[in-house]
């Protein structure tokens, strides 16, 4: 049994005060044993959010980090800086970072290794564009992203990796993938992990779907064989909506 995992990705939203307001408003977060939950917030909010959630079941994650330990990388944040303040998860290779910030499969791989080296849980994002889907290349694209992103990781590290399938055409568009399509692609990812490692490893790895997930459709996704959770943007910005997502994952 894989534990459900719902993560909110706030992207570049919320001031410090608004972030604190969100956390203060949470009243119904399920036990971490039943549903793992995380809010991946902008860097400057992380320490405060970690401190404020010490007695809560929610985890705090980052949206990116650098792959080197330390050094002359102006504007960057290291894995050690994140773990030092109690951050547990980090999103790696989100399609927006691939599109706007030159993230490549190679940097995704370096960052994923660096996350494991520092005991951070990486949420590695993969997903095809609409053009790639229309050309019938969705599976091929995602298989390649998984292969290159996980290259060189040990089986134990892969078991502790979360993979988020986020088709680019479904992000922030309101045009979510059908649960059947999302499940099929998450199945492709699991099969690829089995081919690269083993069936046992692929049974452990948790795969999230992301792209216009909301309280109204979360249960449909969670009911799918290969979907173990969701990476949520817009619907994770309001505390009541986020709690409804957690409740949807809990009751599935
Ligand atoms: O990119 C996403 C999460 O990382 C998905 O965003 P939306 O839920 O707003 O479509």
From TrEMBL:
UniProt cross-references to Gene3D superfamilies, sorted A to Z: Aldolase class I
SUPFAM superfamilies: Triosephosphate isomerase (TIM)
Residue numbers annotated as active site: 94, 166
CC terms in the record's Gene Ontology section: cytosol
InterPro entries: Aldolase_TIM (IPR013785), TIM_sf (IPR035990), TrioseP_Isoase_bac/euk (IPR022896), Triosephosphate_isomerase (IPR000652), Triosephosphate_isomerase_AS (IPR020861)
Alphabetized PROSITE patterns for the sequence: TIM_1, TIM_2
Enzyme class: isomerase
Biological process (GO), any one: glyceraldehyde-3-phosphate biosynthetic process
Pfam families: TIM
Highest taxon, organism lineage: Bacteria
Role this protein plays: Involved in the gluconeogenesis. Catalyzes stereospecifically the conversion of dihydroxyacetone phosphate (DHAP) to D-glyceraldehyde-3-phosphate (G3P).
Protein name, as recorded: Triosephosphate isomerase
Source organism of this protein record: Aliicoccus persicus
